[in-house]
Write a structure and sequence with these properties.
Blueprint lengths: L1 E6 L2 E10 L4 E9 L5 E3 L2 E7 L2 E7 L2 E3 L3 E2 L3 E5 L7 E14 L5 E12 L2 E9 L13 E7 L5 E3 L2 E7 L3 E9 L3 E7 L10 E4 L5 E9 L1 E7 L6 E8 L3 E5 L7 E7 L4 E2 L17 E3 L7 E7 L6 H4 L8 E7 L10 E7 L5 E9 L4 E6 L8 E4 L9 E9 L8 E9 L8 E12 L4 E5 L4 E9 L1 E7 L10 E4 L4 E2 L10 E7 L12 E2 L9 E14 L15 E3 L2 E3 L5 E4 L2 E6 L13 E2 L3 E3 L6 E3 L8 E6 L4 E24 L4 E5 L4 E3 L2 E3 L15 E4 L2 E23 L5 E4 L2 E4 L7 E2 L1
Parallel strand pairs: 12-19, 20-36, 37-42
Antiparallel strand pairs: 1-2, 2-3, 3-8, 3-9, 4-7, 4-10, 5-6, 5-10, 10-11, 12-15, 13-14, 13-16, 16-18, 17-19, 20-21, 22-35, 23-36, 24-35, 25-28, 26-27, 27-34, 28-33, 29-32, 29-34, 30-33, 31-32, 37-38, 39-41, 40-42, 42-46, 43-44, 45-46, 47-56, 48-49, 50-51, 51-52, 51-56, 51-59, 53-54, 55-56, ...
Length: 735
Amino acid sequence: MANIGGYRGWHLCANIDSTTSSSITVSAWIHADSGYSCAWGARTMTFSCNGTTQTGSVNAMNNSGNADSNTVTKTFSGLSQNTTYTISISYDIRATLSGSSQKTWSGTISGTTKVGTGSFNLNILNPDGSEPYQTGEAGTVEQSINGGSYTRVYNEGADSYAIGTTFNYRNFIPGAHRELSSVTGISPSNTTGPWSLTLSSSGASVNFKTAWKNYTFRTYKGEGTTEIATITQQYNTTYNVPHPTPPTGYMFAGFYTPGGSLSDITSKDAIFENGLGGITVYNNSANGTVTHTRIQDNDGVPAICKSFGDSTEAYYIKIDKAAGTASPACGGFYLSTQSAANHIYRHIIWAKIPVGYTIGDYRNSIGDGGRSEWLTDTAGTGDWYRYVYDVHAGSSGTFSTLGFVAIKANNGDDNAAVTWYVCATQVTDITDNYSTYTFDSSSFAEYFYAPVAYNIAYDANGGSNAPSTQIKTYGQNLVLSSQIPTYDGYDFVGWAEAGGDTIFSPGQTIADLSTNGGGTINLYAIWVQDQARLSVNKNSTWSQGKGYFKKNNEWKKIKTIYTKVNGEWKAGHLEKLKKERENACCFIKGSQVRISLDGIAKNIEDLKVGEQIVVYNEDEKRFELSTVSDILRNNNVTDKATIILENGITIEMNAYHPLLTTKGYHSLTKHEDLPLLTDKDILVTINGEIGIKQIVRETIEPTVMYNLSINGKYHNYVVNSVVAHNAQCPTNNRG
């Protein structure tokens, strides 16, 4: 109602405390201000409402200030709902202040209020509009009623409050993955607050509604900070993160991500920023000879590895193997990954392994027919190197864990002490060519790349004592074997690719000969007759003889080529390098090679080394998955066969190519002494056994055709639905 100033130093205070649907409660008291001495005798106050009068006494006081008298409280009942009443208080106060004579004050104060209550409801709602029953699930807010202290609440269901009750709110805190999206039924209607309302007779319902938060996921090129894509989506939605097309000469080797919910990867800390990245000591002997130590060394890891996560700190795991036994071999670590039927897993280990040691992979059961395949060299280099291998799980059987690696000594002494280091490791499920990110935070991923590796094989080309196959890693020079082959009656000149212009010397350092991984580059020995010593000048002349010479990119059977060896010019012998092309086994451009068991196919000329394709398991009579190890191209096919099946499918190929019939592989030319393919044969196709309607064989102008080399036991693939052997016929080009 009011604070009535009686005189300097004291006040009469009155208040309407509360109302109900039929009553009003009023109170009054006297307050002496701080710094004043004030005294009064017992006084009477008269309270009036709706013609009813009640009296009350204020006790006598004698004080030095800042004190209240007793409070006089009166309730008027029997009032009508939703009716406004006037409340008055008559007073007669005689007070004495120190140093002053007694004074008398009298009068009446009044105020109005409405009798009744209103319904009040507070709702903090989920994004779907529901009101959660869990405390604080959707959010909480601080609440104050009638100026009282603030307390944190999450809802308040339809309770009755006196009309005129004031509600104040502040500091809304949303529940997990939510944000405040709208506020209704209170002022102001924004999402920042603070908010306030006074309850009226019509009641009130206040709604704080939340929405799911949006999160951002970014992908970056590996070994750098170039952003590829930024995706923003609502909490708990998903995004398929594609496995990238890597730079020339490199393969996709997995993901680095610092956290979040990216599927198909094993480690959320692949570069050991926060710990051991999920790796565990691998030593089946369990005798303590193998230990792991995480070491910070900002300059001790490859710079490109350090850039992951854009951190100034870098770590590696030091793996110590003490003198004594371990198992297997020298032990190592494992990044335990559960296998599943028909899945393919790629494991990268960025490691520094001493020269004289080799890394290998191990695993528990990965299904019937499961296998692993190394895509890089496995030899220790004494420097940082990215080791990569794939694990192909079988289609049935028992499936357990993979991701185990250990090193072994090339000299067999696995009991010796050895130390090696790992600065990054990850296992990625690459079966579907994408991984799925579930938006439950803002995060990012970078791609691990690794240089491809391929074989350098030596062919003595009629001689003997050819060196063993070497492994060449893209971007890293290779020193060719210094071993020299022998051939009675000939002098060795060097090595060359079939149809190549470059001759390589033993022990020569070479750069890259291919950008495709998993294949083989064959180097053939070049010989000259040791009798053919001719006195010709440096520019050479041609004399009679036999041999092959490359002219205008074609091998010609013309005159002898001369090569300078040990200061002397000698007649060359390159006959083996010609590689007869007329008999190559290939298919025309546009032939459809099946790359998945659910019907997806791809043009044969568009396939890449390492890609998944469908092969026929000739033992179990079923189709399964393998990968391409090499792509071969024949530029000069002239003998073409067109085979039309009874279901209308057409196959166009070189006439030599063997196809699988119900009686085995047959060929139109009896290639490799195979039975003759005729229109009486029944072909094995991915759609079942189908007969041949027509075979047309013709001589055409030289054209380009393609063939594939396949990893694994079964050397075939499915092209235009039929099973074709990837016959290793000679070819003159690599794709």
